[in-house]
Each structure stands twice: as C-alpha cells, then as structure tokens.
Design a protein that fits this description.
By secondary structure, this protein is α+β, with helices and mostly antiparallel strands. The protein has one domain. The chain is 20% helix and 27% strand. The strands form two sheets. The chain has a four-stranded antiparallel sheet, covered by helices on one side. The longest helix is centred in the middle third of the chain and has 12 residues. It is globular, with a radius of gyration of 13 Å. The two termini are 14 Å apart.
Length: 135
C-alpha cells in the first residue's frame, strides 16, 4: 500500500505532467473514506485514496506504457487511457474515483504525478500525450 501521510499543513507540491500547472495534494478523511484532496488554484477536487493502489495494480498487470488522457468530467475520456480507467465501471470500485460531482474528471492529469513522487511509476513529461508505466 502506498504511504499517504501528507496533511493539509504539509501537502505534496506537484505539477501536471507537462509542467504547466502547479497544485497541491494531501490526504484526509471524508464520510469514513480516505480521500486525496487536490487543490488547483481555488478549485478543490476529491479522489478516493484507494485509487493509488488500484491504478498501480492495473499498470503492473498491463506491463505497458498507458496514455494519461486527462479530461474534465463533462468530456468523454479516450479509450485505453488512465482517465478512462479512472471512471470505468470495470475498475475495482466500479466507476468514478473522483468524488466531487461536476469535478470528478482530470484523474489522468492529477493522480500520475503523485504516483511518480511516491515511486510507483515512471511518468513522461512531454507537452502532450504523456504516458505512465508501473515501477
């Protein structure tokens, strides 16, 4: 299990894979569920913290590079991407890892950099079409 120990007072300072946006992430509990709280400017997104171990397991099983495909909730996710998996009815939780209605997307943009910092994946940092692979 990934070590998720950062609090609001000591969050991870992260950048999106292309390095174009900065954001912070920390762990907390909401309604009995451990959640990742992602703050991008004044926007706050919530993700079920189990997504880290679940995504790592999926990437390990794949053994391949997987395109990130970050997209807002209102936009369709490209098939075969991390974003599509993060909202798929066939992932371990049976749907969205994003927990805040209207802001459940962008899983493929914000979760991979945290996984890289945690030492769980290799992550590309190109201007577009980045991919990740489990370590």
């Amino acid at each position: 299990m990934a070590v998720l120990d950062r609090t609001k007072d000591n969050p991870w300072a992260l950048k999106t894979p292309p390095g174009t946006s900065e954001y912070t992430m920390h762990i907390d509990e909401k309604d009995g569920t451990r959640v990742l709280i992602c703050t991008v400017g004044k926007t706050v997104l919530l993700y079920d913290a189990c997504c880290i171990d679940d995504l790592h397991a999926m990437l390990k099983a794949s053994g391949e590079w997987v395109e990130l495909g970050g997209a807002d909730e209102q936009k369709p996710a490209k098939e075969g991407t991390v974003e599509a998996w993060g909202r798929s009815p066939v992932n371990p939780i049976g749907g969205w890892y994003g927990l805040k209605k209207g802001l459940r997307g962008r899983f493929g943009a914000y979760i991979p950099p945290l996984m890289e910092v945690l030492g769980l994946c290799e992550l590309e940092h190109n201007p577009k079409n980045n991919r990740m692979k489990a370590i």
